[in-house]
Amino acid sequence: MTDERPNEPWLLRRLGLGDGPADLRFGWRIVAALLAIYAVSFALFYPEVPTNVDEAAYISQAVMLLEPEAEVIQIDPFTGDEVSMVLDTYPLGTALITAPLVALFGWRSAYAVA
Questions:
Q1: What is the pLDDT of residues 3-57, one digit of tens each?
Q2: How far apart are CA 16 and CA 103, in angstroms?
Q3: Which residue has the higher pLDDT, 25 or 70?
Q4: Which in 48, 85, 98, 106 has the greatest CB count within 10 A?
Q5: Residues 11, 18: Cα–Cα separation, whole Å
Q6: Could you give the angle at the alpha carbon of 33 between the alpha carbons of 51 and 18, nearest 5°?
Q7: Which residues does 59 contact at the CB level (< 8 Å), separation at least 6?
């Protein structure tokens, strides 16, 4: 019996998006390869600073939970003034999970939670 759709891309066929059944081992190999690429790229290009506002807020909250008297200073991007930060409006769950890592290994370890 010949293939009814010879022009169908092989990748779609292997993933089960064509007419035939999916090759689950192939799908899991793709997932494993993507995770490996992500892990290697994260290790090679580890961030030197928090890369977005959410990360900065979670790390700052963790630091303030560990040291309540600590004052976290931020630079206002519009005025250049230093602004003292208070606990953010984010729920404390992520900050509570990251706090032990930040206490033991510093703020850069907070990324391990993600």
A1: 555 666 877 778 887 777 888 888 899 999 999 999 899 889 888 888 888 888 8
A2: 47
A3: 25
A4: 98
A5: 9
A6: 115
A7: 50, 98, 102, 107, 110
Q: Three-state SS for 84?
A: strand
Rounded Cα gap, residues 25 and 14, in angstroms: 10
Asked if 75 contacts 83 with a C-beta cutoff of 8 angstroms, the reply is yes
Measure the N-to-C terminal CA separation of the chain; round to a whole number of Å: 49
Q: Report the C-alpha gap between 68 and 53 in whole angstroms.
A: 21
Please count the CA atoms within 13 angstroms of the CA of 1 that sit on its side-chain side. 3
Spatial distance between the Cα atoms of 111 and 101, rounded to a whole number of angstroms: 9
Q: Which of these, 35, 8, 34, 31, lies nearest to 19 by C-alpha position?
A: 8
- The CA distance from 94 to 32, in Å, is 27
Cβ atoms of 82 and 75 within 8 Å: the answer is yes
